[in-house]
Amino acid sequence: MSVSWNPWHGCHKISEGCIHCYVYRQDYNYEKDSSIVTKNATFDLPISKKKNGEYKITSGELVNTCFTSDFFVEEADKWRVDVWSMIQVRSDLKFFFITKRPERFYVCLPSNWGEGYENVHIACTVENQDRAEFRLPIFKDLPIKHKSIAISPILEKINLERFLDETIESVTVGGESGKYARVCDYDWILDVRNQCLDRYIPFWFYQTGSKFFKDGKIYHIQSKYVVIASGS
Q1: What does the DSSP assignment read for the chain?
Q2: Has this prediction a pTM greater than 0.85?
Q3: In 31-52, which positions are buried (b, 16+ CB within 10 angstroms) versus exposed (e)?
Q4: pLDDT digits 0-9 by tens, 157-207
């Protein structure tokens, strides 16, 4: 089981993968400016309790964190210390978040981070070879107990070979969604999968995206997503 927790909302577009951001698309429908980072009413969800005194989030849950922002976005610096405190208090939960900003890691850490919190899993997002070459060397050397790589949306063929070692617990790949989605080529997916299989790293292809190229044909996917799971 898993739950979602967005302590803050909003972010800034910083690379090619952000161009058609799903959060911006959703906010546009409500005339909301996604570039303004705001603290959410559910900020203290992990430590919120029911009337009977029990936590609203039960022990053992996976908490998908900050999926409508970036955990390391600059505007959240003033709130992040309290979030780290809640993550410590709820050591019985597993917190998972994705970032495009690994270069901000050290300025965003709690003082007692050490080699990392056991209940925190961080994935670094890349979308093309350029961002892989910039972000992953930084990410690879960070003291994090649980690490993954997320290629989302995949925009071209990407070589991850020199970044895949025993510290990477999984790789996920997905195509771009939305009306203006860029093409997701199935051969790119298979290539990443083979890189993972060669190194016995679990692989998950979770979304074709809206424009999927396979066997010489482009498929315009109408459903929300197609899930294809594969691992080593």
Answers
A1: -EEEE-SEE-----SGGGTT-HHHHHHHTTT--TTS-EE-TTTTGGG-B-TTS-BSSPTT-EEEE-TTS-TT-GGGHHHHHHHHHHHHHTTTSEEEEEES-GGGGGGS--TT-TT--TTEEEEEEE-SHHHHHHHHHHHHTS--SEEEEEE-S--S----GGG-STTEEEEEEEPPPSTTPPPEEHHHHHHHHHHHHHTT--EEEEE--SEEEETTEEEE--SS---EE---
A2: yes
A3: eeebeebeebeebebbeeeeee
A4: 999 999 999 999 999 999 999 999 999 999 999 999 999 999 999 999 999
